[in-house]
Records
---
Amino acid sequence: MSVKVKLNRNPIQVYSDKFMKPVYFTPGPSELFYTVPDHLKKGLREHIFSINHRSSRFREIVAETKSNLTELFQLPDGYRMAFVSSASEVWERIVLNLVEENAGFIVNGYFSERFANIAEQWGRNTERYDVNHGTCADIDKIQFSDGVEVIGITHNETSTGATHPLDEIYKLRDKYPDSLIAVDIVSSAPVYDIDFDKIDTAYFSVQKGFGLPAGLGVWIYNQRCLDKTLEMEKRGVMTGSYHKLSRLTEQIDHDQTASTPNMMGIYLLGKVAGDMLEKGIDMIRRESRYKAALTYEAFEKNPHMDTFVKEQNYRSQTTMVASLEKSKEWIAQLEGKGIIVGNGYGLYKELQIRIANFPTHSKEQFERLSDELLKLD
Amino acid sequence: MSVKVKLNRNPIQVYSDKFMKPVYFTPGPSELFYTVPDHLKKGLREHIFSINHRSSRFREIVAETKSNLTELFQLPDGYRMAFVSSASEVWERIVLNLVEENAGFIVNGYFSERFANIAEQWGRNTERYDVNHGTCADIDKIQFSDGVEVIGITHNETSTGATHPLDEIYKLRDKYPDSLIAVDIVSSAPVYDIDFDKIDTAYFSVQKGFGLPAGLGVWIYNQRCLDKTLEMEKRGVMTGSYHKLSRLTEQIDHDQTASTPNMMGIYLLGKVAGDMLEKGIDMIRRESRYKAALTYEAFEKNPHMDTFVKEQNYRSQTTMVASLEKSKEWIAQLEGKGIIVGNGYGLYKELQIRIANFPTHSKEQFERLSDELLKLD
């Protein structure tokens, strides 16, 4: 992404650190979406968290969440969603339900690698296309075998801050028309405008872009996925038990879940998606671009830090990662000012900072963050 | 249980239905534990739901929850607990991690049956010992084959209100010393005083006796379980991926979880377990006996209803079930008075009511409930 967004800043900023609440810029769990506390309190007053998960009242909540997410994501007809416990669970369920033998994985960080590992642990033939951390794959160069049933790609690698351009992801469908294209949108949803018609399944967990307490995963999938799992089941392939895709589908088609779910999470997700619709997803996306541009500008202006992702086209709007000289010390220094940023992931733990830019974060919060980043030396 | 508990009631009861908040006596999700709203609000104020799940602060929360539950359950040395998403997940994980080929299941209701079904779906050889709904198994009469690796039994069948006496459950260990004894304590924990030394693994979900929002399951297991799964893994048996028992163990031994968990649930569970310890688990148990006795007395005194479980020794203290003449009408009538009870389960949906008696429910609430049950005609 380009940093040439017009930076129309308030020239005078007065901060009172002493009375300032901390702001979590960590890449998930992160700052709660700003309406969450009120929805939680309203839910308590209305006894939402005591109602039966088979009651008509809860089915209405599930229906509202489905409807708001469908609108927010502009899901095409035939795309469904299931509520499970985490994105990790979705990895396992995709392997069990959609991969009988062969899968291909594009690996450019720790999270994309984990999906491949789960497929291996379940004994699937796994082909990996590895590229360096902090970069993305050139889809034209990938050579998966014919017959890979699923191709897994991570839209935004939360561990490195590298984002596959959507047009690259869409190429997979043309190149591998018989494979199901599975896209990890854990830390990119709902900020990017994804054309779901060009992918088959996607999944996220709610503690990132939606700003909810952790403990809920959403699995979006199309009819091709469902046909595939039903065909596998017909031939007696083991696809799982209480959360197999066919059972999840039967239940969600009746606004129900296959086991007692994180009902509070489903309730809050529907409410927050509704709030985002009301604010306007276009405005959320515009603001995201502005906040990201501010941050990358700070990374470039401060001589002691360096954007980890070199290619501008691969730079994440939702997880900005910088390598810096004194990561641990500076993270503590920012924390003292109520600015909580993430450390690097894995090998980069003490070498980098990661900054989440989610819809809950305001432009003003990012202006302050940017000022503080510039002061670090 | 006997109904000869001394019923020392307040003789004068004045109710103002109009201003009375509804009380959920549903068998889970149920009334929230009475301290939950305050813990939630405190958690929000302290940003607990934004912190990183790998941070030392969250590890302290996990440690507190483990410690409080260990004390509440009086867990012997060598027993661990893992935090997963539901009791349904534990069923699947037990099958994958502890059963290579053969398992035996004592089936006396819908929930005990579901565990057996999950083992079958995963292709295990499944032996069932079925007894009628509303009764329990006589362990002396069970004939499982030698070599059943796990025996599943449900302490309290939430679908019928039948509770296996603990001394019967303990007989399994003597009769099948080589099998792992897996006990479903979903709706009986922490009300019954279980001797964990006499079982190998047990599990519950938090929306029952602990009065929490749904979306968290707790899996307690001993060293024999861990040895078994490690031995299976050594021989290359597939035990799962991100939530396999060996990985859950590695993580929980460091007060960590194997994936981003329902952190709010873990936090609230630790707090509520602490509140129960402060109140005193003995007092909670005494009150439970009193509240159950009141309810069974009402079932017996009202000529239009009948306790479903005939044998007193099998009657649940935590889920009291009555067959009655006009179930649907009476459930609505009670609801009009702010008393929310559960309908029957499965085939009994329109024939029975189910009343949960969990630690959050007060004696006064049960006195009122009992009065209202007596008025139904």
Note: Confidence is low (pLDDT under 50) at residues 1-5, 10-18 of chain A.
---
Amino acid sequence: MSLLRADAFISPLEIERAVNRSLEEDLGRAGDITSIATVPEDASGRAVVVARQAGVIAGLPLVAAAFQRLSPAIALEPHARDGAVIAAGTKLMTIAGNARAILGAERTALNYLGHLSGIATATATFVKRIAHTKARVVCTRKTTPGLRALEKYAVRCGGGYNHRFGLDDAILIKDNHIAVAGGIKAVLGRAKQAAGHLVKIEIEVDSLDQLEEVLAVGIADVVLIDNFDLAAMRKAVALVAGRVVIEASGGIALDTAAAIAETGVDYLSSGALTHSVTNLDVGLDIEM
Amino acid sequence: MSLLRADAFISPLEIERAVNRSLEEDLGRAGDITSIATVPEDASGRAVVVARQAGVIAGLPLVAAAFQRLSPAIALEPHARDGAVIAAGTKLMTIAGNARAILGAERTALNYLGHLSGIATATATFVKRIAHTKARVVCTRKTTPGLRALEKYAVRCGGGYNHRFGLDDAILIKDNHIAVAGGIKAVLGRAKQAAGHLVKIEIEVDSLDQLEEVLAVGIADVVLIDNFDLAAMRKAVALVAGRVVIEASGGIALDTAAAIAETGVDYLSSGALTHSVTNLDVGLDIEM
Amino acid sequence: MSLLRADAFISPLEIERAVNRSLEEDLGRAGDITSIATVPEDASGRAVVVARQAGVIAGLPLVAAAFQRLSPAIALEPHARDGAVIAAGTKLMTIAGNARAILGAERTALNYLGHLSGIATATATFVKRIAHTKARVVCTRKTTPGLRALEKYAVRCGGGYNHRFGLDDAILIKDNHIAVAGGIKAVLGRAKQAAGHLVKIEIEVDSLDQLEEVLAVGIADVVLIDNFDLAAMRKAVALVAGRVVIEASGGIALDTAAAIAETGVDYLSSGALTHSVTNLDVGLDIEM
Amino acid sequence: MSLLRADAFISPLEIERAVNRSLEEDLGRAGDITSIATVPEDASGRAVVVARQAGVIAGLPLVAAAFQRLSPAIALEPHARDGAVIAAGTKLMTIAGNARAILGAERTALNYLGHLSGIATATATFVKRIAHTKARVVCTRKTTPGLRALEKYAVRCGGGYNHRFGLDDAILIKDNHIAVAGGIKAVLGRAKQAAGHLVKIEIEVDSLDQLEEVLAVGIADVVLIDNFDLAAMRKAVALVAGRVVIEASGGIALDTAAAIAETGVDYLSSGALTHSVTNLDVGLDIEM
Amino acid sequence: MSLLRADAFISPLEIERAVNRSLEEDLGRAGDITSIATVPEDASGRAVVVARQAGVIAGLPLVAAAFQRLSPAIALEPHARDGAVIAAGTKLMTIAGNARAILGAERTALNYLGHLSGIATATATFVKRIAHTKARVVCTRKTTPGLRALEKYAVRCGGGYNHRFGLDDAILIKDNHIAVAGGIKAVLGRAKQAAGHLVKIEIEVDSLDQLEEVLAVGIADVVLIDNFDLAAMRKAVALVAGRVVIEASGGIALDTAAAIAETGVDYLSSGALTHSVTNLDVGLDIEM
Amino acid sequence: MSLLRADAFISPLEIERAVNRSLEEDLGRAGDITSIATVPEDASGRAVVVARQAGVIAGLPLVAAAFQRLSPAIALEPHARDGAVIAAGTKLMTIAGNARAILGAERTALNYLGHLSGIATATATFVKRIAHTKARVVCTRKTTPGLRALEKYAVRCGGGYNHRFGLDDAILIKDNHIAVAGGIKAVLGRAKQAAGHLVKIEIEVDSLDQLEEVLAVGIADVVLIDNFDLAAMRKAVALVAGRVVIEASGGIALDTAAAIAETGVDYLSSGALTHSVTNLDVGLDIEM
């Protein structure tokens, strides 16, 4: 059974790079000197990865890779896979094998699992708040540096969707671009001219007037309505009338999510899902 | 003027690697297609990095490196340096030069600055709570994967101290090690035998009885008292009487910090400082 | 003056990586042993990069980077920039400085320039053939391994456009996907459900019947009509009537391009632009 | 059975690096989003790599490595090995296993196979033209950047030989070196003095006079006669009378090859074999 | 059975990186052209790694990794493990499998084994000289660039101990630090203030007066007595009376080691163990 | 003035990689914690690289690069260049600038300089012993792993020459190859057939009989006479009579070198020059 969520993806190359980088950080030059000093090299152990909190799991493929990297012979028995909604105390994976390898990879495994599950859990909470609407939540490019692909995946594990992965996979026109280009019509024209036929165009608007102008030009696929109040959002939804996708951003928080989603916007984007992460508490119960 | 905090360190090699990795994530294969489409290649701009919240700053060397990486000719004028305690609205750095380079490096720069300043700010809040005691706060190995050296640095910017950087720079004996080795006396003996003369030995204890045993053996430099209540902590401090350094861990939170520090322990260790980070809100005000 | 074409992009990180990789290939472990043996280390030289054929130039930033990598003090005077349409014999850049560095970087510089200019030139020839129509030519993912970003850029230098940079920046549904999903309606439904709101959906069709089905479902942004004859293409254009973008592929060659473009399709995609490249003949005239 | 041609070589490290680099280009950050959306994660498939044109095969080890990299459990059954001369329609390898992995590695596998087989096929055509003579064809350092070792290998698969792999594995004296050193005698003396005892010395001459001078000095192992006409080549061969190896270069093309080879020169060197490559048409027939 | 010495460590990531780096150096771009020319690709061979000299072995995990890297199917039968004290002629490992792979990895394997066993052997000789005392020998940061972790490990294999792995794992105050800080008391105060609670402090002293001052301040964990004569060392030991650890450095050689150790110092540090290494003579006996 | 020896080479890419690797080893994750604690960040210093022993210098470009890597603004004044024969106490380079950067790069700089100068010095001693003959000394592939290119360069600095840099730059036939191929004639025939026209062929012989056979076949460029005694060497020289180059190997040591060289052989190859290196004692005199 794959440990990845079925409809999301992390490349095996990314998993390998991530685990290597983190093991190098933790093992340093001399390795786990405590275990080398106190645990016989041929000691075996058994450990269970446990969620100490309820939440949504993301990162199990990295957990598996971390232990296998230090001991290819280690035995892994997964009890869940990414995207699972679990209760506190749920056993996620059993690991059996060389004791030093278990102890040496423990922190790498748990740091990834706690961080990514934290994101998945926060996303799932968000998704639940807006589940009675058609709106979806998306994360942004405000990700932890070096972890973008993994964090985007974690958002998917929590039931959210992804905005751009980088500056290069869609056009997103903001105020500065509008200003430099000399207005909405001009900037959309330039974007249309430059964009490949598989590239969508989104534009950020700060007011209903700007929105009307965007709709009049008729090039944008998506409008980002930034910092609109609820009333303005509702007007925007009415104005757009399904002609483009509407994404709301700015001050999107857990307690405002439902009200915003109920205005009829299509997407809510939240940077906090990835830039301000609370770890899910996960641990390793070890018997040696 | 260096942008690094004077008494802390990030290697220039680490800064370069971090910035490259993050720019690659964001620029992808095709780069900032929005700006390429809408901003003339020779357009100049001026941007100011601004803290939108009060806090403590960490990460300015990465900010500088990100912009310079995309345009070596860009002009940078710093208005603060790492470790600065700043008010909301403080201007941190002025950047002037190629507009596309400013827009292309913006997110890399802000993601580092927001994340590391978030850690520094949380640390500083913690430090303030215990400032009336002799206790220090330290972070742990529960860091965001790939960012350990940077996050340890951010903790220093906030006035905290660092525990181990990895498994290899001190011995830290936990319950599993004690169990495998056959008890506290045996495990400390093995550690003493194996440790280099520049390696300190710390041991985690769960009870006052264990603590007494540790003190009787006399090898440990530091004891980690894990999940002790306040009364037990006070007894531990009395028992130790300065013979070893005492570090308290387990359930260390902002609202319990003062009471714990007042028991007389030397160090409080907090994983949350680095594993559950709230970004400091920083932004870029751009004029083009 | 930038050497990059104004409306296209290669990341400076990519340029650095590419040049390093190629210099390592050529210098090997012992370097340019001929020049070390025969040219005094302090000899200076002057060299001119010359196009020995007419064509369109792409790759000058890599030329500059190659020489500077071996001698940061070398002086470069460009006489053209990427995208320039030049006659045979045109001088593209003058290089002056350490003679050994000039000889050591020569092949790296010319191999990139010849290869990328070959692509740009072939693209420009293609573009010219269809210039009387509204159609655009795009390249595919059939690129030389390791050079995708550079080759996509070269196509832009020649006046072409880019299809997907990778599997991850748009959905492109082919026959296998349709078969597995159980038909066109089902596969488009799944794609719609899974796709982020900034991801376009393209679907390949083999017949007008399939095209009708696609149009009836109404989810696709782009249809790829594969191996249609001219008559069928004209019918497809009529059938679509502007509702989706039409891309023609399969057997697109220089001598069929005009006729295909005249059918009214929006895009012609050609793998040969990047998978079967004829170098533009470029050379270095050296005076030492 | 090894997939490598028996008398040629690519390092397993190079294969791994090449495949990783190309998969990263193609999978990007989000992977094969089409297949993730439309193909069940546990779907199995069967695919056959087929040559759609007649030619000579090179690159099968990279094909195998690409599929295995995405799914170590995938089953590979080769039907040919590198160097094989095959007819159009020949099945080269059967792949069975995870359908998403097959689709995700397809382009990487085919891009290598098509490019390298294109070189092997062109080389074989060349070799055939001169098969009635003792002459051999060699490729040059005009290779596609980043692919030198692979392309040199492909030339071997087609029956050609390799000139220098880089600037460091033999001395090749050209006009600039002669000029700087002060003439043929002086430059050969310097080369002889500097060269290790396992390094051969080749010198390029533009005229029969220069050739005579080279022969008189008596140090060179090989002479490169550049842009000689057929008559001059014949004179050169007579003049040399077996004392040194003769390599002809400049304007070596398929239609002139036989005549040149018949002059009695030992080697013909052709940059076009690697700098102007026409892909061999290869494809993947998939059943899912 | 692990090939690593039981109480010492090299990370599997480091082994992989080391072996890759060295194989790349040796295989270059074209590989083992001699064996490709003369040994059939399917030839099998059998080889025995033999110590041609008596000594102490270090590096067998790298030997194994080198052969496996070129042929995963190769069979390895170890007859010893790292740390073994062996006689001349001892067989260390038998390798059976593809003959070209054996020949291609031979030098990489032997270069590591000879170098690291040379260090282990020299260390063991040193350790023997002081075995009648309580003193230990430690290596320094004067290691061969790029090989620090491996050489530190080899010292452990020979029975020695490790000083700092880098500038970051302990404080070591030297004359320049004392001078800049304004004296011993000041510098120790600063170090104490800055050091984490798991970082030891060592200070170098050049005289008994300085030593007294250090002892009076009472912060240092270790004193490094540099270039003391034997009489001064004895006085230092008496003066210290067990309050701090004493390390002797400067002119520590094999013939002075015993006398120095007999003065009662705790550690002797020797740069020569790693900076001036005599290879242990190891070879490969091959039958094909 | 370049710091490289004029007639030898290290690539700037190799210098950068080497220095980065070594600085990473030494700075670790937390950097030079001693200097950070005790030296003000804006303190300036002046340091002189001094040879404490007489010898031949190699490695100054790496010294320069190490200091510049930590502080691009540092001022470097060289007083010598690689290949210089210097007396004990000679000042090699003066460095002025940030004190922490000087201290942080000191060990990296000295480790390279001491190691490579050790090789250059040992080589120069060897060269001197045979200076009255026409023989040259060459190093082998028995180099310190990871340092081959640098060590080959150091041998050149000492006046020696280089044998193969790797398995790929010449054919060297040994006993196993002869045995597998079925004798000397067969193996030389295969080698001749396979070798490119710029690849030399060397063959190792163990007896005069084998030598005669080699000469009779007439393909080899170089013969390696392995473990011949002086009388046999003289016979070999007489037998060869200038038809091929003769290299003597096996038991080549400093005290036997002159006698061997006087037999008339062309090259002596010595593995010990690079596999058993005694550091040249170099140091840094610092004023802060």
Note: Residues 208 and 235 of chain A are 8 Å apart (CA to CA).
